[in-house]
Amino acid sequence: MIAAAAAWLGALQLVGALVFASAGLLDMCARGRSAAVRRQIWALAIAVALVLPLPRLALPTSELRLPEVAATAWLVAWAIGAGLLLARLVRGQRLARRRARRARPIADGPWQATAREVGGPRAELRACESARTPMVVGLVRPIVLVPVVMLGAPAAERRALLAHELAHVARADAMVALAGGLARAVYWPNPLAWWALRRLRAHAEDAADDAALHTGIACSSYAAQLVAVARAQLERAGRVAAGGLRARVRGVLDARRIRSGAPRPLRWGVPRFIAAALVLATMVTACEARSAEDDGARPGVRP
After folding, report:
1. Are the C-beta atoms of 149 and 120 separated by less than 8 Å?
2. b (16+ CB within 10 A) / e for 68-103
3. For residues 95 and 55, what is the distance between their CA atoms, to the nearest angstrom?
4. What is the pTM for the complete model shown?
5. What is the pLDDT of residues 105-127, one digit of tens each?
6. Residue extents of the structural domains in the chain
7. Residues in CB range of 112: below 8 A, 6 or more apart
8. Transmembrane stretches, by residue range (predicted)?
9. What is the DSSP string of 218-265?
């Protein structure tokens, strides 16, 4: 039983690597498309990876058997790694909810007026003392947390910040990022799973930056705004993701990049998106089963 479970989990990791590698290839082929399109590629790949275990339960048990000790060690190592990553994910969600509870609602004023001006999805605005940058928390009822130090920002800066965060709300990036974290926990031995989450986050930020630039703010002004926010984060937290900031500033200033503009309402709801992922995962599993049948039907190979 332990050996069979270890073999099943190992095969799942290999098929998951194929899914992430295929998404990476599609991402490379889509370099001429907008960041929103490339983000969608990774979101679908992560959804496929998450539902992939379901159709694979119907596959026959693999004939490959590991020694009992090796199989047990593999399962224990995977469970420890997955448990640590899931605990980290739960801790992040709890911290976000705590921040939202402690933040005070922004009932009226220039931020609410700017939110109505920007348009897009409805989201509650709250002023947060502990937030270093604007952020979206909440999966069902999203809340935009605005740092208290930014409440006096000029109108153009308010408009760009809100357009960026409301783009995250419109594309349900908080839910997609949570799915990416779950996929990383399941496939953590696979480096491609970590890469997939990084690419998803990067394209989501680039797509939201495109939405901010769609408001009419100059690219140079928005790039300077990103640097100022990073500098404030560095002063308060003592660290900043310099690589990610450099890539975002370079993308904002790149006049040749195709920009997605303001996000449209989602064509697919979450159930349809999950259904599409399940169909793709079933197709992958069917191809794998057909390949195993063909190998078993060859002469000299035991079926």
Report:
1. no
2. eeebeebbeebeeebeebbeebeeebeebeebbeeb
3. 34
4. 0.84
5. 988 888 888 888 887 677 889 99
6. 2-260+268-297
7. 106, 125
8. 6-29, 41-59, 71-90
9. -HHHHHHHHHHHHHHHHHHHS---HHHHHHHHHHHH-TTS----SPPP
